Amino acid sequence: MNDPRDSEAAHDRPSHFIRDIIAADQQAGKNGGAVVTRFPPEPNGYLHIGHAKAICLDFGMAREFGGRCHLRMDDTNPAKESMEYVESIKTDVRWLGWDWGDHFFFSAHYFERMYAVACDLIKRGKAYVCELTQEQWKDYRGVPTRPGKESPFRNRSVEENLDLFARMRAGEFPDGSLCLRAKIDMAAPNIHLRDPVLYRIMREHHYLTGNEWCIYPMYDYAHPLEDAFEGITHSLCTLEFEVHRPLYDWVVDQLENFPARPRQIEFARLNLSYTVMSKRKLLELVQKKLVSGWDDPRMPTISGLRRRGVPPEAIRAFCEEIGITKYESLTDVALLEHCIRNALNKTALRRMAVLDPLLVTIENAEALPADIEAVNNPEDPAAGSRRIPFGSQLYIERDDFAETPPPKYFRLSPGKSVRIRYAGFLTCTGVQKDDAGAVTGIICRWDPPTAELKVKGTIHWVPAHGAQMLEARLYDRLFTIEQPDSQEGREFTEFLNPDSLKTVTAHAEPALAEAKPGEAFQFERIAYFVADSLDSKPGRPVFNRTVTLKDAWAKASKK
Ligand code: ATP
Ligand code: MG
What mean pLDDT comes out for the span 313-318? Predict the structure, then answer.
């Protein structure tokens, strides 16, 4: 199996600028040749497919260059963080196939060290306690084209700053009243260097440190410190952090005696059509119950994709396929679906199920075999075969029969024959109707596979006697348009697809009664399905449609 985690496979792939930079750094002996990356999610929601791109890059580069990748909870902003999210993140990263070994960290565990670094900055005259209000601070900061003004508190003595900062920590001041700022340059063209805030006062319970702290470090201060503390060499992040890089470097430059000098490199985030990716919006879908939860199979979350039946290797292959660039773009969800089909084609067992049944009665019942042998996966001989009971009544798909067939209709119609999967041929000899004239069933003659009938179509079927009923949840895209969250003046929720879930009762071959939760199948001619990990029970199967069989991507790329 082509596993994108394998470094050997790297040789066949086009390189990208991050791989090139790391290779060059390693060759030049930077950081003693070590490559240490990190994936730093904020535990304020479940991971999504965009995070998978970052995960595959962070862990993939470490693996490829013989280094390691840390998993770090970026939990410096306690308001929306929780242990539930921490656990879900660990589960998802592991499920994606990555391993952080012993290198699991919480930013919150560095609070004391970060505080010490801040005190040190104060002592060296590089940070001060500021009393400007939020509005004043904004006004003093200026705009990129015009220099800012220095805060009147900028030149306090070291002693006074140390005292005030200690009292900030001790809880003597109300939220937002004071802050600690770096003393850098109020005239810097890069606005992030205009004495950025390092600490704010915020009485907020933290899921790890409880009420121990009422001051919390800002991301721009915390992140480079965490990277430095952990000996990160390459800190890979998305493009919006590019303008923050000078500040990242400034913070790193203030430190001495750290194992490595981390280097921040930015890449374009993944945007995917027909969905939204911001955690805030995903949370809104969950909270407003517009989906059943973070793991709703329509969600772009890792847990949603997993429940939908997407295998981890499909997500890794997708991340490899989209590559790493510096420019923003919108990736067609059809590419993801293509990767899912590719992966499932190799592994999913084939089964037959009929979603919209039409009863077939076979007139020459005396000739029928008791059961039929069917291969489990033509792509994988090791998957073996099974026997499907056969009988004088079968179900076929209602639209595989047409009383008056349109041109080029190769399925069943009166007087015509069709091949039925694994089991010979049917020739339609009669049509049964109700009083209103609707077709209720058809009569057919059966011929064995050895019969020499010339037919163009093959249809699937299930035995009517002993058919297993199952609930089939037919999932579709969650939104009706490509970019639901960039429509001016409109809420993204206005574009939810009302048909993103249809539930039908399907008739299936008996073998599907035994499907294990999470097991994937191809229902022949219909779609890939997975037994739902929560609701499917032995004897009462529930299946989620993962993806249909029609590959829009492969078709488009062949043109
Ligand atoms: P959101 O804006 O949805 O809250 P975030 O970027 O704040 O997302 P984090 O938990 O901070 O979420 O993300 C962890 C890491 O994943 C970061 O390094 C971030 O750059 C990366 N990441 C987040 N979204 C994407 C995406 N769509 N494509 C690639 N990487 C992403
Ligand atoms: Mg973030």
Answer: 98
Walk across the sheet containing 527-531 and list its strands. Answer: 349-351, 520-523, 527-531, 542-548, 468-475, 501-508, 353-354
- Report the nearest-CA residue for atom 3 of ligand 1: 278
| Residue to probe by mutation, ligand 1, list 238, 265, 322, 492, most atoms within 8 Å of CB | 238
Lookup result for tokens 């529930």 = 542
Helix extents (H) in 230-376: 245-253, 279-287, 302-308, 312-322, 333-347
Rounded to the nearest 5°, which phi and psi values hold at 354? -120, 120
Please check the confidence at residue 285 and state whether its pLDDT lies above 60: yes
Closest-CA residue, ligand 1 atom 2, reads 278
Query: Average pLDDT for residues 320-341, to the nearest whole number?
Result: 96
Assign domain 111-219 one CATH number from 3.10.20.90, 3.90.800.10, 3.40.50.720, 3.40.190.10. 3.90.800.10
Q: Which amino acid is at 373?
A: E
Mutation pick for ligand 1 pocket among 37, 51, 266, 331 (CB with most ligand atoms within 8 Å): 51
219-268 pLDDT tens trace: 999 999 999 999 999 999 999 999 999 999 999 999 988 888 999 999 99
82 SS3 class: coil
Give the mean pLDDT of the chain.
Answer: 95
CATH assignment of 353-460, among 3.40.980.10, 2.40.240.10, 3.40.250.10, 2.40.50.140: 2.40.240.10
Q: 11 pLDDT band (50/70/90 cuts)?
A: low
pLDDT at 260: 84
Domains 270-352+468-559 and 353-460 share a fold: yes
- To the question of pTM greater than 0.85 for the whole model, the response is yes
Which one, of 90, 48, 91, lies nearest residue 70 by Cα?
A: 90
C-alpha pair distances (Å), 462 with each of 55, 116, 298, 352, 545: 43, 71, 29, 6, 19
φ and ψ at residue 414, rounded to 5 degrees? -50, 130
Question: Fold for domain 270-352+468-559?
Answer: Ribosomal Protein L25; Chain P (2.40.240)
pLDDT higher than threshold 80 for residue 4: no
Predicted pLDDT of residue 552: 75
What whole-number distance in Å separates Cα of residue 516 and Cα of residue 537?
8
Query: Tens of pLDDT along 373-382?
Result: 999 999 999 9
- For residue 228, give the H/E element and its range: helix 219-229
Structural domain spans, the chain: 111-219, 270-352+468-559, 353-460
SS3 at position 504: strand
Average pLDDT of the segment spanning 316-331:
96
Task: Please report, for residues 351, 516, 523, 529, 533, the alpha-carbon distance to residue 539 in angstroms, rounded to integers and kept in the order given.
Answer: 16, 11, 18, 17, 14
CB 108 within 8 A of CB 140: no
Q: How long a stretch of residues is the chain? A: 559
Give me the active site residues, please.
Answer: 42, 269, 279
Average pLDDT over residues 169-189: 97
